[in-house]
Design a protein that fits this description.
Layout (H helix, E strand, L loop, with lengths): L34 H14 L7 H19 L7
Helix pairs in contact: 1-2
Length: 81
């Protein structure tokens, strides 16, 4: 008597993740602000605003924006010949 073979389950094919722009290219290549710097700035802003509830994302984004602008301002200006 032959052994019965259990059917093999179908192979699951994971969809490919959508392609994203390479963060290492373009004008802002290498420009980032560490998470802890944003966290500290956001915390101080939150305290200064009286610790409002429900404003966490807005305050985080403002802190991130301020720190990124400060980094951009500190970049040397070069002229292309």
């Amino acid at each position: 008597m032959a052994k019965s073979m259990a059917p093999t389950p179908p192979q699951v094919v994971k969809p490919k993740a959508p392609s994203r722009p390479n963060p290492g290219t373009g004008l802002l290549r290498g420009l980032s602000v560490p998470h802890q710097e944003i966290q500290l700035r956001a915390y101080h802003k939150w305290e200064a605003m009286g610790k409002p509830a429900g404003k966490d994302l807005e305050i985080w984004l403002r802190a991130q924006h301020e720190l990124m602008n400060a980094k951009l301002q500190a970049l040397p200006i070069t002229q292309k010949s």
